[in-house]
């Protein structure tokens, strides 16, 4: 690095990893230039994300490292995106699938076990629908698209510059290059693969959830995340394929059936978006920071982009500026 | 187990779906040392070769790959998937699944026999996922199958060997045919029981992938195969209707009489 006081940093990729890292670097005093090849910020997987900040629920399928590295995520997001709601997560299962709830409980912690009455107290719309559930009070959620926009504004306010289009500034002109290009970096990062995910946005004015609700099912587990204006995000499939076509009939049917199983009012919901994308993933599905000289890769966010980007961005900042 | 001229290094066949990550899958394979791994093309392919990244990971496990037609509900779909599998994995092996009932994921035996016949004529070596039905087994053998894979219980149910009578009858009826208990295995004890009944191999997936500790469970299943096989080969004692003391009573000291 040169002896200048303010390192000049190029961040490639304005998905959640790139935007969070750019903001953290700018907050530490870097002169940050963010480049996005797509037409808008969040052109990749981040745009389709659920936006659940659920370190404890994720332990159901993720190794301990994910939970450990995401404990500060809720605080970071609430400091940067005021709309981030810390109302916890509710996990329910239909009577037939209660063994799935027991399995989920065995693999997770920091929850309370609820009966039907307490489920109804948390989410009145779910009264009389489920007899048993788990409540993770320390978790939060946000609208990923609104959050990315908030980060862009924050970066601009910190003096950061944002470029769009095919002409990427030459990395050699900068002290550091932080590559956060997700699946586009597949050819330069060994083992990086795309895992297909599909999601829906439904508008359902009849329902009012205050927090993400996960519906467990042995074949099609889904989560439903409430957003502004009666919109609900329903996600997401997990398919080992680098297939970026639009959503398939089978997946859409599965997601809609699950939403309907959670609450029949979804039958009358309006489908406002159906989408598919690829989650950039390493073989262990753990997001990584990989340094190669003055280039640092932040990639493999898998399904943990919003949860893990603050921790990974801090790691990058420690490499650039030293420990805080 | 020997089937289609291939000696399987282990009678444990392991599915590759549902793991928390490919890394956990690889560790489980190392711990379980299966004779083959199965991989689904239907769900992961969408008709293109989009699953390549995952299939490469599976091939890199260094274990023979038995592709399957999981999720296929019709003969034509299953045959097309098998042909694609042959292209992708360069093997004539195919684990043939033709699903009839969506709820129990029960095989459609009529479609299964038909697909097995078409695929055998096309040069495939078919491993059919069937029930304990004797007549279906007979038809599958006539269609060219040299191995049978009866279910223990519905896929993913973890209920073990549901129909002991039916499975025993099937085993006794075709003593020379290699048989794999496919589906329904939940615990290592189910595997031991299958081997004690004389089955040649087991195929399982969820029981390892969704265990609390998949790697430890893979090892447990490997050991259970060994235990069951040894138990079978050693010749279990017959069951009796009365107690038989293991120490002779005649000439015993009278201390505890």
From TrEMBL, chain B:
<comment type="function">
    <text>Catalyzes the rearrangement of 1-deoxy-D-xylulose 5-phosphate (DXP) to produce the thiazole phosphate moiety of thiamine. Sulfur is provided by the thiocarboxylate moiety of the carrier protein ThiS. In vitro, sulfur can be provided by H(2)S.</text>
</comment>
<keyword id="KW-0808">Transferase</keyword>
<comment type="pathway">
    <text>Cofactor biosynthesis; thiamine diphosphate biosynthesis.</text>
</comment>
<feature type="domain" description="Thiazole synthase ThiG">
    <location>
        <begin position="4"/>
        <end position="248"/>
    </location>
</feature>
<dbReference type="InterPro" id="IPR033983">
    <property type="entry name" value="Thiazole_synthase_ThiG"/>
</dbReference>
<dbReference type="GO" id="GO:1990107">
    <property type="term" value="F:thiazole synthase activity"/>
</dbReference>
<dbReference type="GO" id="GO:0009229">
    <property type="term" value="P:thiamine diphosphate biosynthetic process"/>
</dbReference>
<dbReference type="Pfam" id="PF05690">
    <property type="entry name" value="ThiG"/>
</dbReference>
<dbReference type="InterPro" id="IPR013785">
    <property type="entry name" value="Aldolase_TIM"/>
</dbReference>
<protein>
    <recommendedName>
        <fullName>thiazole synthase</fullName>
        <ecNumber>2.8.1.10</ecNumber>
    </recommendedName>
</protein>
<dbReference type="InterPro" id="IPR008867">
    <property type="entry name" value="ThiG"/>
</dbReference>
<keyword id="KW-0704">Schiff base</keyword>
<keyword id="KW-0784">Thiamine biosynthesis</keyword>
């Amino acid at each position: 690095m040169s002896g200048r006081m303010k390192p000049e940093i190029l961040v490639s990729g304005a998905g959640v990893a790139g935007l969070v890292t750019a903001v953290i670097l700018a907050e530490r005093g870097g002169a940050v230039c963010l480049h996005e090849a797509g037409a808008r910020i969040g052109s990749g997987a981040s745009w389709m994300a659920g936006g659940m900040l659920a370190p404890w629920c994720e332990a159901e399928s993720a190794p301990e490292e994910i939970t450990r590295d995401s404990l500060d995520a809720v605080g970071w997001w609430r400091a940067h995106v005021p709309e981030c709601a810390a109302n916890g997560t509710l996990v329910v299962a239909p009577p037939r699938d209660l063994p799935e709830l027991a399995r989920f409980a065995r693999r997770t912690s920091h929850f309370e076990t609820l009966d039907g009455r307490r489920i109804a107290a948390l989410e009145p719309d779910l009264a009389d629908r489920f007899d048993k559930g788990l409540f993770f009070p320390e978790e939060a959620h946000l609208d990923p698209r609104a959050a990315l926009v908030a980060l862009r504004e924050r970066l601009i306010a910190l003096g950061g510059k944002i470029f769009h289009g095919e002409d990427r500034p030459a990395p050699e002109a900068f002290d550091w290059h932080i590559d956060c290009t997700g699946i586009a970096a597949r050819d330069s990062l060994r083992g990086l693969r795309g895992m297909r995910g599909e999601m829906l946005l439904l508008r359902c004015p009849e329902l009012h959830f205050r927090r993400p609700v996960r519906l467990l099912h042995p074949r099609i587990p889904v989560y439903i995340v409430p957003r502004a204006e009666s919109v609900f995000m329903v996600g997401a499939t997990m398919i080992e394929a680098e297939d970026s076509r639009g959503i398939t009939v089978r997946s859409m049917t599965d997601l809609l059936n699950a939403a309907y199983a959670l609450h029949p009012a979804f039958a009358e919901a309006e489908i406002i978006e159906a989408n598919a994308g690829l989650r950039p993933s390493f073989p262990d599905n753990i997001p990584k920071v990989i340094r190669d000289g003055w280039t640092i890769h932040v990639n493999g966010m898998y399904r943990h982009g919003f949860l893990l980007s603050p921790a990974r961005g801090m790691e990058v900042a420690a490499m650039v500026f030293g420990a805080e | 187990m020997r089937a289609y001229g291939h000696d399987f290094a282990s009678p444990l066949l392991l599915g590759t779906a549902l793991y928390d990550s490919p890394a956990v899958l690889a560790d489980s394979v190392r711990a379980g040392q299966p004779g083959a791994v199965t991989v689904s093309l239907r769900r992961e392919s969408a008709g293109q070769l989009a699953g390549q990244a995952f299939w490469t990971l599976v091939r890199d496990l260094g274990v023979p790959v038995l592709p399957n037609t999981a999720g296929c509900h019709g003969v034509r779909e299953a045959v097309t998937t098998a042909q694609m599998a042959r292209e992708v994995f360069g093997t004539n092996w195919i684990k043939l699944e033709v699903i009839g009932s969506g709820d129990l994921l029960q095989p459609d035996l009529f479609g299964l026999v038909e697909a097995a016949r078409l695929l055998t004529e096309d040069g495939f070596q078919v491993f059919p996922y069937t029930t304990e039905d004797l007549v279906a087994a007979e038809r599958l053998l006539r269609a060219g199958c040299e191995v049978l894979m009866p279910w223990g219980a519905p896929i993913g149910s973890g209920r073990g060997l549901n129909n002991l009578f039916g499975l025993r009858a099937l085993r006794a009826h075709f003593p020379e045919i290699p048989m794999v208990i496919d589906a329904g295995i939940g615990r290592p004890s189910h595997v031991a029981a299958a081997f004690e009944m004389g089955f040649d191999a087991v195929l399982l997936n969820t029981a390892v992938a969704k265990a609390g500790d998949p790697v430890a469970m893979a090892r447990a299943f490997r050991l259970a195969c060994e235990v069951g096989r040894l138990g079978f080969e050693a010749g279990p004692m017959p069951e009796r209707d009365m107690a038989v003391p293991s120490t002779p009573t005649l000439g015993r000291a009278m201390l505890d009489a």
